[in-house]
Amino acid sequence: MSKKIVLALAALAVSASALTAHAQQTLKPEQAIKYRQSAYSYIKWNMDRIKANVEGANYNKSEVIQAANAISAIANSGMGALYTPGSDKDAGGVKTYVKPEFFTKQQEAARLAQNFIKEATELAKVAASGNAAAVKSQYGKLGGTCKACHDDFKVRN
Amino acid sequence: MSKKIVLALAALAVSASALTAHAQQTLKPEQAIKYRQSAYSYIKWNMDRIKANVEGANYNKSEVIQAANAISAIANSGMGALYTPGSDKDAGGVKTYVKPEFFTKQQEAARLAQNFIKEATELAKVAASGNAAAVKSQYGKLGGTCKACHDDFKVRN
Prior knowledge:
By secondary structure, chain A is mainly α. The first copy, chain A, has helices at 3-25, 29-55, 61-75, 101-104, 106-129, 132-153. Chain A has one domain: Four Helix Bundle (Hemerythrin (Met), subunit A) (Up-down Bundle), CATH 1.20.120.10. In chain A, helix 2 runs antiparallel to helix 3 and helix 2 (29-55) packs antiparallel against helix 6.
């Protein structure tokens, strides 16, 4: 490829990412914090529903599928876009529970996020099988990825 | 079927629904309100992302799929379980924006909820096609189902 074309492509890539950055900048830090907290909150409810099913006397396959699909789709929705510049600290009266290190130790944060996405995706697959024991095991694995990130990057509240 | 068996089955059904009711009662009204608000909040972010894609100069197929899948999975997650007794009014310092009529006009509420679920499910299908014009149209249809419910059952805030 000619040097000219390479430079032109590079310029295009930069302007495309500038556009993306612009789109994300329209989200105020407090909005980004609220939206990501919404995601985790809804995941919590659905984790609790699955827990009740795998630990209780009754296993409702349909409820577990609904819950696991919601968790997986949220995990795979590109939540990383909600960790915008300025949202590393409380903003607009909204408190964040993420430690500032989450924004600086990006490789470690990305690794934990990828583990979370992987196990959430797997949970949705296992839920579809209706095998309660397998769901219980996979629920535990997913919970482990939540805890790993909380241990490193969540302020205790 | 003998009358005895019918009665036994009926008793079983009652105790099963009592168990479900019990499981749901462990959710405090303020928790139910927070969880459902989380769902709507996360849906809002994802609706906004799709809007930016269908109205902007650039269409990011992958982002639209992620957003539409999240909306669809949340819509299909059985959110109705979050409209628990006692959560029809502010509880534990958490304000709800649902009108009490949502709990009494159950047929109308169910109809609107079903429309929402139907169009959200369809949006995820259309998003997978990558056809921006079709996504724009389906986004509009889904937005219509949000508005229909807000008009009837949401307190203006």
